[in-house]
Amino acid sequence: QTRVGVKHLYNAFSHPRRTVWTTMFVPSEILFAMGLYPFCLEIGAALFAGLGQSSHGLLEAESYGVPTDICTFHRSAIGHTFRNLFPRNILQVATTTLCDNNTKTMKICESVTGKETIVIDVPYEADDYSVKYLTRQLEEFTHRLEEITGKKMNHAAFERAIEYSNKTREKMLEVNELRKDPYCPLPGSNALGFMFPGFLLIGSPLSAEFFSALAAELREKIAENKENADKAYLKDQIRILWLELKPYFKVDFLTKLEEEQGVKIVFEETNYVYWDKLDPQKPYESLARKLITSHYNGPLERRIEVVRNLAREYQVDGVIVFSSWGCRRNNAAVPSLKRELNKVGYPLLSLDGDCVDDHNYMPGQFSTRIEGFLEMIRGKKATVPQRETCAVGVT
């Protein structure tokens, strides 16, 4: 992941005339087909958090009057923009999916870059009218890219981007299936970083290359682990489904959770493949359906159903949601998620923290709440007959 990420970032910083700032869910397939490099502001904020730069960006944004009660992904991204740390670009593109701050952040950034901002309005309802509405927008988006870059969309290049996207999807599904195996070694703390290759790089050979290599490596490691099987360890292991993201600044609580407390994060909501295979003969319509049918878009019931299914498929003992401070969308959903999961026997722990601002990280509180949650699960496991698992899949 580091190698493909560095390669893409090098291209984005080295080619300002081909770099486009985006928010999450902007269809990268269109940009790669046009020979452009997407640079996602939220992912940029996470990367700079890992470098210890978040506080500087947050202070810079505050000095320009950006409210302190909004998502720190967006606040720090705005601050880094004012500090000229992001690559130069030819335009900004935002979708309305997931977060109202997307469009507002891009309009603020526009005052710094002087470049145009394009907004892709993703409908709430997943019906034929909405698909047609969004399909037209994606076609118009491509036409505007042609005008700005002076290049026409090459249909062969677009087909290749769709093929790369489908290849990535295929390998992501393969990885997700392999992760049902109790001997799969992939730590969830690492998999929570897969939004870079799985969302930003999708439609490029880098994304397909990454997930192809990951699937092959996991298959090999699973076979090795079975030769040295420790069934007692598997019996005592606590299997967790993780919702939302994680802190991207330097913190070790996830590593300690996995290495010292007998916990395995077996899957993450962000890595769920919700979309169908794209049709290269109808690329805009396929991409429109992909955007609209996301479990992060539309009614909360859609997300709840996905989470329930994942908990069952991965045979988890409990669910943890990382409730990032300032994310009203997720935090408002937590009570409903907890209620519906409890109904079907899955306890949920909501950890209040921040993905970007380390000042909002309270290790003592984290430890206390996690320990209590794990003790409750261990007590439950001690009184309930253990489920049997097969090599891959659910029995």
Features:
four-stranded parallel beta sheet; alpha/beta; globular; 8 strands; 395 residues; disordered C terminus
Task: Please outline what is shown here.
This protein is an alpha/beta fold and 395 residues long. It has 17 helices and eight strands.
Task: Tell me what the structure shows.
This protein is α/β, with parallel strands linked by helices and 395 residues long. It is 55% helix and 11% strand. The protein has helices at 2-14, 28-33, 41-50, 54-63, 72-82, 101-113, 128-149, 155-178, 188-191, 195-200, 205-227, 231-236, 253-260, 283-292, 300-313, 328-343, 363-383, and strands at 19-22, 37-40, 91-95, 117-120, 238-243, 263-268, 318-324, 348-353. The strands form two sheets. The protein has a four-stranded parallel β-sheet with strand order 2-1-3-4, sandwiched between helices. Strand 3 (91-95), helix 6 (101-113) and strand 4 form a beta-alpha-beta unit. The protein is globular, with a radius of gyration of 21 Å.
What's the layout of helices and strands?
Blueprint lengths: L1 H13 L4 E4 L5 H6 L3 E4 H10 L3 H10 L8 H11 L8 E5 L5 H13 L3 E4 L7 H22 L5 H24 L9 H4 L3 H6 L4 H23 L3 H6 L1 E6 L9 H8 L2 E6 L14 H10 L7 H14 L4 E7 L3 H16 L4 E6 L9 H21 L12
Parallel strand pairs: 1-2, 1-3, 3-4, 5-6, 5-7, 7-8
Helix pairs in contact: 3-5, 4-5, 5-6, 7-14, 8-11, 15-16
- From the spread of the alpha carbons, the general shape counts as globular
Poorly predicted runs: 388-395
- Biggest sheet architecture: 4 strands, parallel
Amount of beta strand: 5-15%
**Number of H- or I-type helical stretches:** 17
Sheet with most strands: strand arrangement: 2-1-3-4
- Report the count of strand segments: 8
Distance between the amino and carboxyl termini: 32 Å
Rounded to the nearest angstrom, the radius of gyration is 21 Å
Proportion of residues in helical segments: 40-55%
Average pLDDT, rounded to a whole number, is 93
The helix-and-strand class reads alpha/beta
